[in-house]
Amino acid sequence: MEKRTYSAGETIYCEGDESQSVYLVKTGKIEIIDTYPETGNVVSKALGAGKVFGEIEIIDGKPRSSTVKAVESSKLLVFGHTEILDILFRRPEDSLVMARDTFDRLRQLYSTDSLESEMAKLREEMHETIKKAVVSHEGRVVKSHNGMAAIAIPIVLLVAIVVGIQIYLH
Predict the structure, then answer these.
(1) How far apart are CA 156 and CA 130, in angstroms?
(2) 59: closest CA among 2, 110, 106, 115?
(3) pLDDT tens digit string along 39-68?
(4) Averaged over 149-170, what is the pLDDT?
(5) Quick check: 70 and 9 in contact, CB under 8 A?
């Protein structure tokens, strides 16, 4: 077990990093940040003292699925993979802290109330993002049409003059 201190705004780990450790927040507050193509970075969860994070990726062996940053000065206990296995098999009573947080997350994930509220939040975010995209697109279309008119009017006048000269000369 290693003790680490992070300053406010400091990154603990990034999405895609290799998973080697599980973290326990002793003091302070951290944010788990997910990246979505549609909305960018979204704080999915804020955790304080006594909460565990990073355990899912160490169990499934996949890279980190989120970025984690300290919101305020935070002290964390960091457990490596072998230490976690030791806790699970030699001191199962200590593994209850990690298991409790993991099961709480699973309960929230599969809870109907939580799912409906998350869907409502996502719908609202999508609505706002679509509205901004439409307004931005309309602005580009207006600028494009104004630019086209600025080019088209002299060309039309030039064509009219050339046609007028041809008619006059014949």
Answers:
(1) 37
(2) 106
(3) 788 888 899 998 888 887 777 778 898 999
(4) 76
(5) yes
